[in-house]
Amino acid sequence: MNIDFKKYSDGLAPAVVQDNDTQKVLMLGFMNDEALQKTMKEGKVTFYSRSKKRLWTKGEESGNFLELRSVAADCDHDTLLIKAHPLGPVCHTGADTCWSEKNHNENFLQYLEDIIELRKKTTPEASYVASLFSKGINKIAQKVGEEAVETVIEAKDDNDGLFLNEAADLLFHYLILLNAKGHRLKDITRILQERHSG
Hints:
Elements: E1 13-19, E2 25-31, H1 33-42, E3 46-49, E4 54-57, E5 66-73, E6 80-86, H2 108-119, H3 128-135, H4 137-155, H5 160-180, H6 185-197
Parallel strand pairs: 1-6
Antiparallel strand pairs: 1-2, 3-4, 5-6
């Protein structure tokens, strides 16, 4: 890929980052050739930070990395389009994008799984999810069982609000259990699809 970094006085080309799945524009950064090569080699989007005066891998402090999916140059070879999979919110404010847009309307469960993966790496004191992981698989499985029982109890009554909230708790803890076992919801979806077509 031929990018004309010399076109800019500081040698930095704009890099637009787009979510590979939702197609939402996530952020704008700047790359020099070294940042581009590091991005392509390591698979995590890396920029040149004008404030830090050094290469900066998105997520190096927060853990909210951008996993590279593809890189393309525009017709003038002076701007990059980076397609990536975000591991958590992209903006430093905590928003999904730097324009405060939601980035998970159609893929919210996948987004939630990414958040679970992110939270389990924090300290148990800072995150409920991390505290569950710290207690081990038995505690996580037990929690799923408890939520399942509570969902069944609420299903026998006529309060839709309580039932739906218990069902949400069950699904959330089920996603945690899948993660603890090294799986994601797509693995279960694949099995259901195979059964349906069988």
